[in-house]
Design goal:
single chain, alpha+beta, 3-stranded antiparallel β-sheet, 2 helices, globular, binds zinc ion
């Protein structure tokens, strides 16, 4: 069955059809458009999805989206942002 809403499940998002079509290629690929941002927790050794960043150009660092532009669901995995280390990890990722 086709999904029309983004849904967070066990730290990962099941994207809606619109977002699914927009998210193509590797997470850290040097390209423009929507990029899925994953977060690796060094303490726990687990990986999860933080959300989606939008890049205006190949060299743009990208901005994190808080809402899905296709289905309006909140797509920022916010509880983890309360953690200082996680926020630092996000900053490190943006520099890559
Ligand atoms: Zn969506």
């Amino acid at each position: 069955m086709a999904k029309d809403k983004c849904e967070l499940k066990n730290g990962w998002y099941n994207w809606c059809n619109g977002m699914k079509k927009s998210l193509e290629g590797e997470a850290n690929a040097k390209r423009k458009g929507f990029i899925q941002v994953n977060l690796f927790n060094f303490k726990k050794g687990t990986e999860s999805c933080l959300g989606v960043a939008y890049k205006k150009s190949m060299h743009d660092k990208g901005i994190m989206l808080n809402y899905c532009p296709f289905c309006s669901q909140i797509i920022l995995n916010t509880p983890k942002l309360k953690d200082k280390n996680t926020r630092k990890e996000l900053e490190e990722r943006k520099k890559e």
